[in-house]
Structure formats: structure tokens, C-alpha cells
Specification:
This protein has 400 residues and is α/β, with parallel strands linked by helices. 47% of the residues lie in helices and 11% in strands. It folds into two domains: 166 residues, no CATH class; 189 residues, Vaccinia Virus protein VP39 (Rossmann fold, 3-Layer(aba) Sandwich). Helix 1 runs antiparallel to helix 16, helix 3 runs parallel beside helix 15 and helix 12 packs across helix 14. The radius of gyration is 24 Å and the shape is globular. It starts with a helix and ends with a strand. It binds S-adenosylmethionine (SAM).
């Protein structure tokens, strides 16, 4: 009997039922999607000051409490999305050879140690998938004294990783290869414990699929960047997710990663300027072209934003092959952009409440896929969110 299918199905039903509150593009909306269906929620959002919005964005528990008045399913959804903290199996700060952490950024080092500490020791050789410079592999090789094969696409990273491993005398072999290439399957073996720390979207999915096909003994992954996929839309893995009514676009898949990380005042101000300029230009172009669709504008050099809104519009119009008339009241459209920004922020506040539940839908889909392939699966967090918001670990081992 699957451990996760009930939770997945309940979460799936609630996410489907409430999709009007999260599955939309705030940028493309000129009013709240629930403007008429739930005016009380719209009024409450409009009554919030910018500071209230900022505070609630940083305090999900308070946000759920406030939103539950309008969306009473939210506490239950968060209950379903709640997963245990994985207990460390080995020491979080093991005795390691000197110099092992050289060149590893502080937070990455903490992630690597925390990930290592919750991994069950199967005394098997390790396969590190999308290894970067093999930071995790270094700790695995040193702590478990077993061989590590580290596969990575970027040659410079494999070279740096290999030379650091050689200097440290660690039993690590880097393989420079594309994880998607059919030949890369040859590094995946039955007698192995495969790991992937923050391998993006299809990269960790392809590992799970190949591990299941090869009957590899164990695999532990920490998923990230769910939207980095080769198809246009999400391809569900497990039978319950295939049956689900939810169809997830890349825009939906970005949602779990948009959790607000506390930004400084300067970054917040820069974002306000850029987003309100974009929205102001969008309102202007809609007015001129009578086309109601949102017109995306490419990335902009941050220096251009300093020249003001009118220059931004001239640049954006050029990018889009649009002729702007001489007599535009730029102050009016800038104000419109700023008003739209405030609306977008409030829509994002509502979507914020669905981020972790949606992430757990994706995580349980992976867990159910591995269970169906005959693996015993556990899901939990391996570190606190300030160390990394992508703190979920899926561990699967073949049932004996
Ligand atoms: C987010 S980084 C994670 C690196 C490392 N696991 C860590 O946690 O520090 C993802 C890594 O995947 C690698 N990568 C991207 N596409 C790849 C591919 N097709 N095949 C192999 N590696 C790939 C990138 O070069 C990058 O080093």
C-alpha cells in the first residue's frame, strides 16, 4: 500500500478545486480573477498597505491564517503538504580531512553537510548526478570511504572538481557528459546509491526514470527548478498524477521557486521600478493597439531603468517593432503601471499560499513513481529553509 497516494489525491483534489486562486498569470490580469466571485477577498487585499503585503509575504503561517477567512481549505492543504524533518543518520559535522571545504560557498557547504547527514549508509559506490564541482561527492567520498562517480556537463567544473579530489586524495572520478545522452545511462548501475542535489527539472526526473529501469539499489534527490523541462507542459510521472485534471504549464511550475527570499530595500525598489515600468508599458501598448493580450518585453539592462519611464517605453517599443506617437502622457501610464504593480503584488500574495502545496504535489508525484517501481520511499526536509528553500529530499531504496 502506497504511503503517499492518499495525501497526493487529497492535495490534488484541493489544488484542482482552488485553481482559480493560483493557476493564472498575474501580469496578464487587469483585475483580480476573483473580483466578482469573491469581492470580500478583493476588498481585503485592497485594504492592505504595501508594508502589510511585505510582512505577509515573509510569514506564510500568518498569511494562511488571514486568507483562511476567504479560502477555508488552506490550513488543510498545508497540513497535507507538511512533511517531517528527516532525522540525521550520521553526524551533521563529521570529522573531515582538512581543506575539504576549500572553495565551497558557506551555504552550499551547510546544504551538503545536512544532505549527507540524513542519507542512510548502504555502503555502496555513489553516483553524483549533475555534480557541478562535486561538493557533495567530496563529503560522501570522505565520510563513507566509498568511490564516487560524478557526472557533470560543464567541462571546466569536472576539471576543477577532479583536480580538487586528486589533491585531497579522494576516490572520485568525474565524467564529463550530458545527463540526457543515452550513453550516460551506462554510469548508472544496480549496485549503487545515486544522489542529485538540486539537479534541475528533467535532469532529476531522468535520473529517477533510469534508476528505476536499472533497478539501482538506492537514490536520493533534492529537486529544484521544476520548470526546466523539455516539453511545453509538465509530464506527470505517476498513475494518480496522470489521472489528475491538473495541467501544469512552465509558468505554473515556476511557482514553487518564487517563494520570497527576504530582499533588501535596494533590491525591492529596483523590482518596483522594473515591474511597474513593464506593466505601465503594457497598459500603454494595449491602449494603442487595442489588443488586450499581455505583450512580454525581453530582459532589460538595469542601467536603462535609471533613464526613466519614457526612455524605457521607447526602448520596449523598439524591441516590439511598435511606433509610439509623440504626444504620450508618460506620467499617466507610469501611474497606471504602479497601480498594476500593487494589484500584481496582491495576486502574488494569494498565490504564495499555494506554493508549498503545489511543490508537494510535484514531489509526491516523484515519490509515487518510485513506489510504483518497487521502491520504499521517504520524503522529508534535510535542512531549514534559510539554508536553502529547496530543502526537500526524496529517498528511495529497492524493497528487499
Ligand atoms: C543547480 S547545479 C547543482 C550542482 C551541484 N549538484 C550542487 O548542488 O552544487 C546543476 C548542475 O547541473 C549541470 N547540468 C545542467 N545540464 C546538464 C546536463 N544536461 N547534463 C549534466 N549536467 C548538467 C549544471 O552544469 C550544474 O552544474
Amino acid at each position: 500500500m502506497s504511503a503517499y497516494s492518499d495525501t497526493f489525491c487529497q492535495l490534488d483534489a484541493l489544488l484542482t478545486q482552488e485553481r482559480a486562486y493560483w493557476q493564472f498569470m498575474p501580469f496578464a490580469c487587469h483585475e483580480y480573477p476573483w473580483q466578482h466571485s469573491m469581492p470580500a477577498l478583493s476588498d481585503w487585499l485592497d485594504s492592505l498597505s504595501d508594508q502589510d503585503v511585505a510582512n505577509l509575504l515573509e510569514d506564510t503561517a500568518a498569511l494562511i491564517g488571514e486568507l483562511a477567512v476567504f479560502l477555508p481549505v488552506l490550513p488543510e492543504m498545508h497540513q497535507l503538504a507538511n512533511i517531517p524533518v528527516l532525522p540525521p543518520v550520521s553526524e551533521i559535522s563529521p570529522r573531515l580531512p582538512r581543506g575539504l571545504d576549500v572553495g565551497i560557498p558557506g551555504r552550499k557547504w551547510q546544504q551538503v553537510l545536512a544532505f549527507n547527514a540524513v542519507l542512510p549508509s548502504h555502503k555502496l559506490p555513489w553516483l553524483e548526478w549533475c555534480a557541478g564541482k562535486g561538493y557533495l561527492g567530496r563529503v560522501l567520498a570522505a565520510c563513507h570511504n566509498t568511490r564516487v562517480t560524478s557526472l557533470e556537463w560543464q567541462r571546466s567544473l569536472t576539471e576543477d572538481g577532479q583536480s580538487a579530489a586528486n589533491q585531497l586524495g579522494l576516490p572520485m572520478t568525474f565524467v564529463q557528459a550530458d545527463a540526457f545522452a543515452p550513453e550516460s545511462a551506462s554510469v548508472i548501475r544496480p549496485n549503487q546509491h545515486a544522489v542529485a542535489l538540486h539537479a534541475c527539472g528533467d535532469l532529476h526526473v531522468s535520473l529517477l526514470e533510469r534508476v528505476a529501469a536499472k533497478r539501482t539499489a538506492a537514490v536520493s534527490i533534492s529537486p529544484c527548478c521544476y520548470h526546466l523541462i523539455r516539453h511545453d507542459a509538465y509530464q506527470p510521472l505517476s498513475a494518480p498524477a496522470i489521472k489528475s485534471e491538473l495541467r501544469l504549464s512552465k509558468h505554473d511550475l515556476r511557482m514553487p521557486l518564487q517563494e520570497t527570499v527576504t530582499a533588501g530595500q535596494r533590491v525591492k525598489q529596483q523590482r518596483f521600478v522594473e515591474v511597474s515600468y513593464r506593466l505601465g508599458f503594457n497598459a500603454l501598448q494595449k491602449h494603442l493597439t487595442h489588443n488586450d493580450a499581455y505583450l512580454p518585453v525581453p530582459n532589460v539592462q538595469k542601467a536603462l531603468l535609471k533613464n526613466g519611464f519614457a526612455d524605457f517605453c521607447l526602448w520596449a517599443a523598439q524591441q516590439k517593432g511598435l511606433q509610439l506617437p509623440e504626444d504620450i502622457d508618460y506620467a499617466h501610464w507610469q501611474q497606471k503601471g504602479e497601480a498594476c504593480f500593487r494589484k500584481v503584488e496582491r495576486m502574488e500574495l494569494v498565490r504564495q499560499a499555494f506554493r508549498r502545496p503545489l511543490e508537494m504535489w510535484l514531489v509526491f508525484d516523484r515519490a509515487l513513481f518510485m513506489e510504483d517501481a518497487g521502491y520504499q520511499v521517504s520524503v522529508g526536509t534535510f535542512c531549514d529553509k534559510p539554508i536553502t528553500p529547496r530543502n526537500i529530499l526524496i529517498h528511495a531504496q529497492l524493497e528487499k
